[in-house]
User: Which sequence fits this backbone?
């Protein structure tokens, strides 16, 4: 599913640290590696969780990115980010330093177009003059401060043009709508059917449905498992022939029992079985495109010709 | 029974050509166990070589000599009729998640033996379902037997509007090595080798070269598997990267393209419910051959695929090789090393 606006900044940051064209790999190109997401760190005024941390191994520069999906600035959090010690970040994110250079740190705020003015204003209240990067659907640009760590200096001088959405590494969190979980859970259940599993626990289903589960803390993981269970219940209602949802009890955890799999059918029936699972409840079978009046359906003519020739199709559906 | 037995049979000039099917098998270090339950109704025989088994189908009478010295890409040698042998293996490929064809990209077939140009080439592009009406080459099939047959394909591929349809499906060479001898060898895009000559060793070397290129592609993809790791005291990181395909021609009818790609049908066998936004389409998909989750993000001229930990590089090889025969023979992969792995060929 498309990324929710709320999740764009974190995915934009991860994408900048990776090669995921056509998304720019600005941070990766400057020698930064992604080393942590949602990393808790101590400061001398309390703990703070860092949205993202990148490290340049050649210079030991650390870049901490705070992803803002809205316009609110939590002053307490901003003050803690302003006093981060690089040594604490190195230890918390278990970063391996392979050169002698003393680690340095920069904090960068990444915010969405439309919220920038309020983010700038909010940060100015705590005296923040550091870099703020603005993300829109068509560009990334520095709206305040110079580019943070030195290898980045030139790379953010000019606006970076964007020609597509950021890569979807983090596709849901505990605030995502039900439909997002329905899609992921159905996908995971189809995978179970393709693998001929008879049963899957809610926990295992959550791990399958949400590959990025490890970034979440214990409470968020629990919330996500509940969301997945609710989605599994809805899907089981929708596809009663295929799944039964078994709620948790004192003696067992919640699970989905898989009643049948298209794998048991012959190849044609198998394909149709999976296709039926791709149609949402009530959605009619997809109809062929209407023909333009007078237009020759050349393919059907060719099919007949080939059938008459009785050729053995090498490259057709019957591959191999 | 050992490898010498195979060589004698290969070199029997009066006999049928040798058919070798190279398949990808995930035997988890137990090839004997894997083989013993691979094909119910077949009998498995050990040979003097622990990496060589003989499989006989009681029902069909088919016989395969299985060389699993390469622990991932196994050679099924047979002198049974090619069509029957293919159907037998096809049934196994469809039934098992741990058994698949090798999906050789068009570039891998373009040159299969050093300094040797193909005497036989077949181009088979069937894009009717993907390329909308009005396209210049929605289907292109060429067979050419003669010397330096690749000249013709090069000639056609210089025309920008035909290049996306010039995808190699079969190739044949007369391979010679003074130390070994010679073989006439034909290869198709699902790893089927048919050979006749005076050197079984040369036949095997040719296969090894093609498989080495294929392995390089598959393993390069697998080095990019998306792998989330949790830190003991909180937080996590992610390794790997999506694989991005660069299309040489833009997708004009995205709905039709998605509907076809995620139709669950052979050869892609992808399940998914596409969701289209202004910027791109996204699909949480399942590779039905192995039951693995993939995420697709599809723009006008690019396809980004997230292959997660536990996934198999063959999923990408199958996708790319089949897109070359259905939509765009000129597609490539964005990253330089992957692009080079996709287009690997001997320099002739």
Assistant:
């Amino acid at each position: 599913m498309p990324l929710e606006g709320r999740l764009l900044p974190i995915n934009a940051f991860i994408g900048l640290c990776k090669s995921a064209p056509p998304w720019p790999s600005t941070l990766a190109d400057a020698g930064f590696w992604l080393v942590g997401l949602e990393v808790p760190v101590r400061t001398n005024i309390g703990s703070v969780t860092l949205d993202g941390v990148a490290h340049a191994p050649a210079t030991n520069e650390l870049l901490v990115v705070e992803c803002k999906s809205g316009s609110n600035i939590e002053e307490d959090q901003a003050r803690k980010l302003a006093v981060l010690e690089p040594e604490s970040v190195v230890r918390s994110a278990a970063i391996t330093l392979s050169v002698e250079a003393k680690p340095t740190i920069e904090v960068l705020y990444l915010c969405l177009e439309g919220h920038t003015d309020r983010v700038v204003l909010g940060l100015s209240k705590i005296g923040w003059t550091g870099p703020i990067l603005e993300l829109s659907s068509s560009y990334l640009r520095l709206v305040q401060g110079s580019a943070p760590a030195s290898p980045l200096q030139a790379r953010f001088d000019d606006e970076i043009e964007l020609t597509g959405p950021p890569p979807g590494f983090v596709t849901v969190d505990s605030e995502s709508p039900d439909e997002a979980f329905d899609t992921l859970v159905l996908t995971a259940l189809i995978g179970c059917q393709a693998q001929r599993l008879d049963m899957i626990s809610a926990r295992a289903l959550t791990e399958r449905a949400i590959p990025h589960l490890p970034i979440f803390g214990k409470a968020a993981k629990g919330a996500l498992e509940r969301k997945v269970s609710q989605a599994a219940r809805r899907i089981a209602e929708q596809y009663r022939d295929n799944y039964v949802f078994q709620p948790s009890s004192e003696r067992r955890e919640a699970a989905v029992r898989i009643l049948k799999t298209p794998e048991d059918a012959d190849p044609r029936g198998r394909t149709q079985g999976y296709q039926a699972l791709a149609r949402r409840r009530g959605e009619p079978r997809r109809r062929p495109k209407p023909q333009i009046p007078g237009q020759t359906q050349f393919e059907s003519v060719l099919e007949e010709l080939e059938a008459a020739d009785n050729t053995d199709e090498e490259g057709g559906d019957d591959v191999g | 029974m050992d490898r010498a037995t195979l060589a004698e049979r290969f070199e029997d000039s009066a006999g049928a050509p040798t058919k070798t099917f190279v398949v990808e098998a995930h035997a988890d270090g137990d090839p004997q166990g894997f083989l013993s339950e691979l094909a119910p109704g077949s009998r498995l025989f050990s040979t003097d070589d622990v990496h060589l088994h003989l499989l006989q189908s009681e029902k069909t009478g088919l016989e395969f000599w299985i060389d699993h010295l390469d622990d991932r890409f196994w050679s099924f040698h047979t002198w049974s009729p090619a069509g029957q042998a293919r159907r037998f293996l096809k049934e196994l490929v469809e039934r098992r998640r741990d058994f698949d064809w090798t999906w050789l990209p068009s570039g891998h077939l373009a040159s299969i033996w050093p300094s040797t140009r193909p005497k036989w080439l077949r181009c088979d592009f069937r894009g009717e379902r993907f390329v909308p009406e009005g396209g210049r080459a929605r289907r292109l099939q060429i067979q050419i037997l003669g010397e330096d047959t690749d000249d013709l394909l090069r000639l056609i591929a210089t025309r920008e509007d035909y290049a996306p349809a010039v995808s190699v499906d079969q190739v044949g060479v007369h391979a010679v090595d003074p130390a070994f001898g010679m073989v006439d060898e034909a290869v198709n895009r699902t790893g089927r080798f048919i050979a006749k000559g005076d050197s079984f060793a040369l036949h095997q070397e040719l296969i090894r070269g093609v498989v080495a290129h294929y392995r390089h592609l598959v393993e390069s993809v697998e080095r990019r598997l998306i792998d989330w790791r949790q830190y003991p005291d909180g937080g996590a990181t992610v390794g790997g990267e999506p694989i991005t395909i660069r299309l040489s021609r833009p997708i004009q009818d995205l709905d039709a393209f998605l509907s076809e790609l995620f139709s669950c049908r052979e050869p892609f066998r992808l399940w998914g419910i596409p969701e289209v936004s202004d910027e791109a389409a996204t699909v949480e998909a399942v590779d039905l051959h192995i039951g693995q989750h993939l995420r697709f993000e599809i723009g006008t001229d690019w396809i980004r695929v997230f292959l997660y930990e536990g996934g198999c590089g063959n999923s990408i090889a199958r996708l790319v090789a089949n897109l070359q025969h259905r939509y765009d023979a000129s597609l490539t992969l964005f990253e330089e090393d992957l692009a080079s792995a996709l287009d690997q060929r001997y320099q002739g």
Summary: The longest strand of chain B covers residues 168-177. The domain at 227-342 of chain B is CATH 3.30.160 (Double Stranded RNA Binding Domain).
